[in-house]
Amino acid sequence: MSFLNKEICDGDNPDLTEERRTATFDTDRMAQVIYGSEKFAARRRQITKSISRIPALQDTKPLAFMTREEKITEACRELDVLSDHWEQLIYVNDEEEALHLHREVIGMEGHPFALHETMFIPTLVSQASDEQQEKWLGRARKREIIGCYAQTELGHGSNLRKLETTATYSPSTQEFILHTPTITALKWWPGALGKSSNYAIVMADLVIKNKSYGPHPFIVQLRDEKTHQPLPGITVGDIGPKMAFNGADNGFLGFDHFRIPRGNLLMRHNRVEPDGSYLKPPHAKIGYSSMVKVRSRMAMDQGLFMAQALVIAVRYSAVRRQGFLEDKSQEVKVLDYQTQQHRLFPSIARVYAFIFCGLETIQLYEKLILDVNKNGDTSGMADLHSLTSGLKSVVTHFTGQGIEQARMACGGHGYSMASYISEIYGVAVAGCTYEGENMVMLLQCARALVKAVELVEEGHPEKLSPMMAYLTKPSVTVDLTVGPEAYVKIFQLIAKKQAFKATEQLHKFMVAGDSRDVAWNKSAVELTKASRLHTRLYILKTFIRRVESITDISVKAALTDLLNLHLNYELLDVASYALADGIMSSTQMDFIKNQLYSSLEKIRPNAVSLMDSFQFSDLQLRSVLGRRDGHVYQNLFEWAKSSPLNQSEVLPSVTQYLKPMMEKSKL
Ligand SMILES: CC/C=C\C/C=C\C/C=C\C/C=C\CC/C=C/C(=O)SCCNC(=O)CCNC(=O)[C@H](O)C(C)(C)COP(=O)(O)OP(=O)(O)OC[C@H]1O[C@@H](n2cnc3c(N)ncnc32)[C@H](O)[C@@H]1OP(=O)(O)O
Ligand SMILES: Cc1cc2nc3c(=O)[nH]c(=O)nc-3n(C[C@H](O)[C@H](O)[C@H](O)COP(=O)(O)OP(=O)(O)OC[C@H]3O[C@@H](n4cnc5c(N)ncnc54)[C@H](O)[C@@H]3O)c2cc1C
C-alpha cells in the first residue's frame, strides 16, 4: 500500500505553504545574516545545488537501518565521490565550504576526515614550522595522507599535565622515542584514529635528559602508506560503538619505544636542537592552540546542530494538528499552542545568538593565529581561552536541552529514529565532553574572572580587559521599558555580584587556612555559576550588537522580535539571583513575563521561515519528519516499510522461538 501518490504529494504540504506565505522577511536575506555574508550564503546554495546533480551523492539506504560498518563504508564511498568532484564543488582549501560539503553529504555521524580537517591540518598550520609545513601540509591538504589528533589517554583527558605518553629525546640518534609506559597511557578516544588515519598529531610529554617539559605536539606516521598496516611498535584500533557518532572510528593507540626523527616535533614556537637544548615557546600554552581553535568553532557548530533539530520540530509542529481552540470544525496546528511555542521559540533565539557568537569567535581565532604566527604576539591568548572555555560549556549545555525539547515537541514521532533528532542529540551532547569537559572549562573561565575581580579589589580596574569592564559598574535602578540596554545593565549587575560573591568565598576559605586549590574546590559550584552568567552576558551582548548592525529592515524586525524574546527569557531564567540580591522587583518580573508571552505571539507567524532560513537541504537534515515538503505521514509510512524487519512477513525469531513457545503453551 502506498499513499505517496501524485494527488496527495504534488507540491508542499498546504499548511507549510501557508506558513511560508505569512513570513514577513525574505529567507535568502536572513541566510546572509546567519552565514555571515551574502557571498557565503550564496555559495552554500550553489554547493547544495551542485550536490543535488550528482546521483552518487543522493540518499541511499536510511542511516537508521545501517550497521556501524555499513555507516563507515557509506561515509568512505561518499568521500571518494566527493574527492572526484572536489574542485568543481568548492574552492580548494576553503575551510567553511569544505565543512558545509561534509555536513551536507556525510552528515554528522562522523567520517574518516572529521579530525583531519578540524584538528590535524589546523595543528600543522598553527604549530609546524615553515619547513615542516612544506613537508606535510600540502600532502595533508591534497588528502594523500589522513590525520587525526591524538591527545586524550585512557587515564587522563582533562588534566593534560598528567599525560603519560613520553617522547624522550635521544641526542645520539637525533630521534624521539615515543612510549606508552602503562595501560592508562594508551591514547583513547581520538576520532578517526582507530581504522582510518595513517598519521596523527600525538601530544606527548617531551623528556630531555630526564627532564619533563610537558605535553608537546609531534607528527607521527602510524601506518604504512601502501599497505595501511600499523608500523612495527604501534598498536592501534577502534574503541567500539558510542552513544552516537558511530560513523567515526574513535580509536586507541600505544607505542612501544617507537622512534621518530627530531624533525617530527612541531617546531614553529619551540625547538629541540640536535644536542638536546630546548628553546621555550613565547607562551607556555601555545601548544594547546588546536583545542582553542575547535572551541572557537563550537558556538557555530552547536548552533547549527540545534538549528537542525528545530527545523524538524517547527516544520512538524506546523503540520501536526491535534486538539481544538476556538474553531471546533478543524483541529489546530500544535505550533499554535503557547506551550509549544514556549518549548521551541526560546531555543530558536538561542540558535541565532550562538551562531552570532560563533561568527565572532571564529574570526577572533583567525586573528590570534595571524598575530602569533606573523608577529609572535601572544597577548590575545588568555582572553580567547577564557571566552571560548565559557562559551563551549554554555552553548553545549543549552544545545542539549534545546534538542531534547525539540524531540519532545514532536510527540511520539520525535522518539522514532525517523525524526533523526536522537542522532542530533547524541552528537551534540558529545560537545559537553570533548574539547574539555564542561565543568573543567567553566572553571578555566572562572580563573580569569577571579583574577579580574582581584584587580578591581586591588584598585587596578584600568588593567581589566574590555570583556571584564562590567565588573566595575556601580549598582543602578533600571527601567526595563527602555530597551535592550536596560536588560544588559541588569544582567551585568547579576553577573558582577556572582563573580564577587564566588571570589569572596574563595578568599574566605583561604583566610581560614585552606590552600588556594582546596579553597577553589570548596568554591567551585559558585565559581561555575559566575562563569555561566559571565558567558551568557557575552552571548546577550553579541546578539544585540549583531541585530543592531543589520540593514535589511524586515530581517531586522524579525530578529528584533527574537532578540526581545531572548532578553526576557534569559533574564527570567536567572531571576532568582536578581530577586535574592534585590536587583529586580516582583513587578519587574511580571513585566518580563508579559513581554515574553507577547514575543511568542509575534514570532509565531515567522517561526517556519526563521528555520527555513538555515537552508538545510533534505539530504543534510536526514529527517523523515522534517522534510521541506512536509508530507510527514506519507513519508513516515514509506520509511517504516523500508525497515529490514518488514522485508519478510514472518521473522526467523518467530519460527524459531515464538511459534514453538505458543505451541508448547497449547499443550
Ligand atoms: C571538531 C568539531 C567540528 C565539527 C563538529 C562536527 C561534528 C562533531 C561530532 C563529533 C566530534 C568531533 C570531533 C571532536 C573532536 C574532539 C577533540 C578533542 O576532544 S581533543 C582533546 C581535548 N582535550 C581537552 O580539551 C583537555 C582539557 N584540558 C585542558 O585544556 C587543560 O588541561 C586545562 C586548560 C584545563 C588546564 O591546563 P594546564 O596546563 O593544567 O593549565 P592550568 O590550569 O595550570 O593553567 C595555567 C594557566 O594557563 C592558562 N591556559 C590554559 N590553557 C590555555 C590556552 N589554551 N590558552 C591560553 N591560556 C591557557 C590558564 O588559564 C592558566 O592561566 P592563569 O594562571 O589563570 O592566568
Ligand atoms: C565524541 C568524542 C570525541 C573525542 N575526540 C577526541 C579526539 O579527537 N582527540 C582526543 O585527544 N580526545 C578526544 N576526545 C576525548 C575528550 O577530549 C575527553 O574525553 C574530554 O577532554 C574529557 O576528559 P575525560 O574523559 O578525562 O573526563 P574526566 O576529566 O575524567 O571527567 C570526569 C568527571 O570529572 C570531572 N573533573 C575532572 N577534572 C576536574 C577538575 N579539575 N575539577 C572539577 N571536576 C573535574 C569532570 O567535570 C567530569 O564530571 C573525544 C571525546 C568524545 C566523547
Mean pLDDT: 96
In this entry the ligands are: ligand LYGD5NNO, flavin-adenine dinucleotide
Unreliable parts: 2-8
* The top level CATH class name of one domain: Mainly Alpha
Radius of gyration: 27 Å
Query: How can the largest sheet be summarized?
Result: 6 strands, mixed
**CATH architecture group name of one domain:** Up-down Bundle
Q: Span from first to last CA?
A: 38 Å
CATH homology group of one domain: Butyryl-CoA Dehydrogenase, subunit A, domain 3
Structure class: alpha+beta
Report on this structure:
- With 667 residues, this protein is α+β, with helices and mostly antiparallel strands.
- It has helices spanning 6-9, 14-22, 27-34, 38-52, 68-89, 95-105, 114-127, 130-141, 289-319, 338-375, 381-409, 411-415, 421-430, 438-457, 484-511, 516-522, 524-548, 553-573, 575-580, 586-603, 607-612, 618-621, 632-641, 652-666, and strands spanning 147-150, 166-170, 175-179, 187-188, 199-208, 211-221, 234-238, 251-255, 258-261, 271-272, 278-279.
- Among the domains are: 146-281, Butyryl-CoA Dehydrogenase, subunit A, domain 2, CATH 2.40.110; 290-461 and 484-611, Butyryl-CoA Dehydrogenase, subunit A, domain 3 (Up-down Bundle), CATH 1.20.140.
- The chain has 24 helices and eleven strands.
- Strands 1, 2, 3, 5, 6 and 9 form a six-stranded mixed β-sheet that branches. A three-stranded antiparallel β-sheet has the order 4-8-7, with no helix packed on it.
- β10 and β11 form a beta hairpin.
- The longest helix is centred in the middle third of the chain and has 38 residues, at 338-375.
- It is globular and about 90 Å long.
- The model is unreliable at 2-8 (pLDDT under 50).
- The site of flavin-adenine dinucleotide has 21 residues, from β1 and α14.
- It holds the Pfam family ACOX_C_alpha1.
- Residues 484-663 form the Acyl-CoA oxidase C-terminal domain.
